[in-house]
Amino acid sequence: MALKLIQRFPRLGQFGIQRHPPVASASPLRTSSAGQPVCVACLCTSAGRCIRRQGCRTLQPDCGIRSLTTIAREPAFVASSSVGLHRDSVPRFSLTQLHRPTAAEEQDFQQRLGSCSSYRQVFKLLRSVEILSDTMAAAALHRVADLEQEGTSLKDPTVLEKDTIRALCFQLEQDSGRLTDAGLVSALLACTRLFLDPWSTLMVRLVSESQDRLDRGEMTVGQLCTLGQAMIAIEGPGCVMLEQVMANIQKQAPAQWSLSDLVAVYRLLQGCIGEDGKYRDLLNAMHTHAVKVTSRMDPAAVSVLLSTLVILNQTQAMPLVISLCKQAVQHVPHFTDEELALVVGALIHFGHSDHYFVQAMEKYVPTMAFTSHPETVTKVMQFFGRRNILSPTVFNAVAESFVYRADDYNTSQVARQIMAFGKLGYLPPNAGNMFRKVEIILHTRFSHFQPRTLLNLLHACILVERFPVNFVSKVFSRYFLQQLQGKIPRMDRLILSQLTQLYMTVKLECPFYEGPKLHSKYRVKSFLMSGRSLETPVDTHLYHSVKNGLIGLLGARSYFGSKVLTPYCYTLASSLAIFLSMDSARESTLKWRTENRASAFVRLIINNMII
C-alpha cells in the first residue's frame, strides 16, 4: 500500500514515515524521577505530568511515537506538533458498527455542535460525550474549521495544540482502517480545512486508506465528492486520484442521482475543471436533470448551483438559470448573507432578473439592510443598478442604513453602493445625510481608495448633481492620473469618458472652481463606444417606432440621422436629429398632414423642430 501511495504522489517518497523505537532513538524518551519512562502524553505537559485522569501505564519496549510531521510545502498549511496521546485518552469514539450512537444521538450532537460559537465550546461538548462515532468526530473537526478558518490560515494556530484535537487526530490516525467511508473522507476533508501538513502521518494514512476504498468502487456519489474536494485541497485539480474520483462519479447517470448528490457534484466541479470543455457532456446532463428538480431545492442548493454556473461560465445553461431564479423567489427571506450574495451575483453575471424576485427583494431588503453583511448589501445594490431596476423601497432602505453603518463598509463597497444611485439618477429622501457621510469618508479615507474606485465614486456623485469640488483637484493632478493609467500604454476609453464628464460638470456647474484642469489628452470628444457607453441606451422599440415613422414621412433614411454628437460631447440618441432645411421641413409636414402617414409622436417632433 505504501508503494502504491508513493507511486501516486512522487513527492511523498522524499519524506520518511518512521516508527522510532524509544530505546534506539537518537532522542530517548524522557524518564520520570523514579527512572520510569514517561508516556508521550506526559511529554506534552510543561512538567512532564500525565494528563490522563488515572495516570499512565509503563511504556512497553516496542511502543513508539507516531508524529504529524510538518513540512513547509505551502504557506497555507500550518504546523502541528506530534500527536502521541494514549489510545484511551479522552475523548474516545467508536469505530465499529456494534456500539455506534443512535441516529437520534448523532442528530442531537450535530444540533449542539452547530450552536457552538468557539472552538472551546466544541472541545467542551466533545468532553461531555461518552462515545463518538467517526462521523461525529469529523463533524467536530469541521466545526472547528468553520470557526477558525480565516483565508488560507487559522485565526489561532495554537488550536491544533490542544489536547482534545490532538487526541482526535491520534485516534483517526491509529484506526483509519476501521473508519466508515463517510467518516474517512469527511475526516480527510476536515484536516485539509484545518491546514494540517499534507505529508504528516495522519494525512498520509487517511489518503492511503481513501485510495484503497476508491479502488474498491463502493463509495457513494456524495462520498466521492467529499474525497474529491479533499484531494483538490491537497494536490490541486490535476492529481491522478481526482481523475479516478470523476471516473467513478460518471459511472452513474445524473438522472439517477439524489438531489444532494447532484448538488455535491456541482460543488466539486467548481474546483476540478481546469480546461475549457472538460466534462462538458457531464455538465449538460446535469443541467438537464437539475431543471427538473429545481422545485425541490433548498436555499443552499440554489446558491451552490448558481455560483457554480458563474464559475464555469455556463452561458448555455440559461434555462437552468431562469428556473433557479424562480425557485430563489420563495427562498429570499431564508438565504444566508453569503448565499444571497452569490445568488444576486449570478443574476448580475447572466444579465437576468425576474419580476417576482424583485418584488421579494423589495420586501426583504428593508429588514436586512441594517444587519446583513456589508458585501451582501452592496451586491444587492449592484444587482438593482446593473439591471436598471429603480426600486425606491430598496434604495431608501439602503440609504438609511448607509448613514448609520458606512464605517463598516470598505472603500469598494462605499463606491459600489453610491454607483447604483448615480446609475439610476435617484436621490433618496435622506440624500443630504447620505452624501455628507460620503464626504466624511472621502476626507478621512481618501488615501485608502484605489484610483479607479475613487473615480467611479466621484462620477456617480455628479450623476445625481452632487459636485465633489473639494476632491476633483486631486483627481486632475498628474500623480493621480499616472496612478489611474498604471502600466498600460493607453488609458481605457471608459475611464477617459468619466474624466471628461467630471471635468465638464465642474466647469459648467462650479464656475468658482480654480483648481487644475484636466489635460486635453485625457478628454474625449464623444461618449459613443462600441458595446458600452456612459449614456443611457435608447429604448429599442421607441427608436424603431420613430425611425419608421420618419422614413414614411420623409421618404428616405438619408434625410435624418440619429446618435448625433452635440458641441457638448453628448449624443442625441433618445430622440432623432433631423437634417432638413426649414422649407423641406414644412413641405414634409404638409405631406404628412395630407397623407396622415406618421404617428402622433413623430408629428410632435416635427412641429417642435419647425418652431
TrEMBL record:
GO MF entries: RNA binding
InterPro entries the record matches: FAST_2 (IPR013579), FAST_kinase (IPR050870), FAST_Leu-rich (IPR010622)
Entry GO terms, CC: mitochondrial matrix; ribonucleoprotein granule
Ranges for domain FAST kinase leucine-rich: 416-485
Stored Pfam families: FAST_1, FAST_2
FAST kinase-like protein subdomain domain boundaries: 497-572
Biological processes per GO annotation: mitochondrial RNA processing; regulation of mitochondrial mRNA stability
Chain coiled-coil ranges: none
Superkingdom, taxonomy of origin: Eukaryota
UniProt name for this protein: FAST kinase domains 3
Organism: Seriola dumerili (Greater amberjack)
